């Protein structure tokens, strides 16, 4: 550990309280000393290189709640992918141990070649495998007109408890735009060596993916609605295995098999992507080598994180008596709850012109993103209210949404007025040219100016903290109530 002054680099052991005055940063005297993390300590006299066991000890001391939350949530998400594999193999009559074991080996082998192109080609084969759901849709003969109408005019299920509906909506949001996707998207673009020159093409790729996801979701909702409409199972979702069995019963065996194979295909893609997202993020935080262009011997930490997540998730799923169905819904709902926090920090980063230069968000993009985040928070507030008051009506939900929007608007206007009176100005009033769009590179971290948060930024960060504590707590309560008989 060292501290840099204008004249020299000082070892941490030589930095005392009086010496702080010579440092470039404004530090409190308590900012110097042993690093005492939640899981370990790094002593000031340890100035040697970090190798072997000392690297693990350093990691345990440095790890904070943010990294742990990401690692834990992503790990649980990978577990849900293996849950899907288990349900598909059970339906097809394949041994759970053999099926999960072979799938884990395939997922690990797909990234271990040291060639990103090979992994991408493997992933594209799996993507085309999802087309197996097209024949299932055709076999079900869905009412196209009603599907189109309900796509543009959605409705709540009749007589369904509001709390369960809100739980489902947030789970859908959490699994469609999950926090891990934010980390994966930026890391994979970097690993693919895409420069600013090709960002417009990457945006086209993103929009194509969004379109395919929407079409796929509508397709699955359509044929499952046809399969279960008018049956005792309608409105009583259990898990994907029960969906496959119901499709076989009401549409045909071939349709059920196609659905199960497509489920296996999707789960393998999901487990690989989420594991990569986590390994990329940990590599960023710990400054490890983290690229699919590197072989395992050249990026041991990166591949250790990836393989460890896969092995651990497979072991959890094979544990007898694990509540797989409940765990699936719980993880996706928590992902929906945590999504606003990830998007808020992403928004702050994307608005920082010192970081992104000419690629920083414009005002319209910032406003649109803020509205999306507000909607996600309002959905979570409705879920919280439905836990406290199970008999809540549509009028009450509307009142919560309108009241929340009015409160958000008042807070925003108040904070903006304070910023204006204080004379806050954008610290990066730099004019960029078209040429800058093609040549911009983020400066090294040690050259970036410190972030300057406005009163509006700080206000919403405080609100966000309170929201996370309350919403996550009540989601946990709701999940517990769903487990208890009679609730």
What does it look like?
There is one protein chain. The chain has 487 residues and is an all-alpha fold. It folds into three domains: 2-62, no CATH class; 67-318, no CATH class; 323-442 and 452-487, no CATH class. Helices cover 67% and strands 2% of the residues. The chain has 18 helices and four strands. The strands form two sheets. Strands 1-2 form a two-stranded antiparallel ribbon. The protein has a two-stranded antiparallel ribbon with strand order 3-4. Strand 1 and strand 2 form a beta hairpin. Helix 15 packs parallel to helix 18 (455-483). The termini are far apart.
Q: Could you give a quick summary of the protein structure above?
A:
The protein is built from 18 helices and 4 strands.
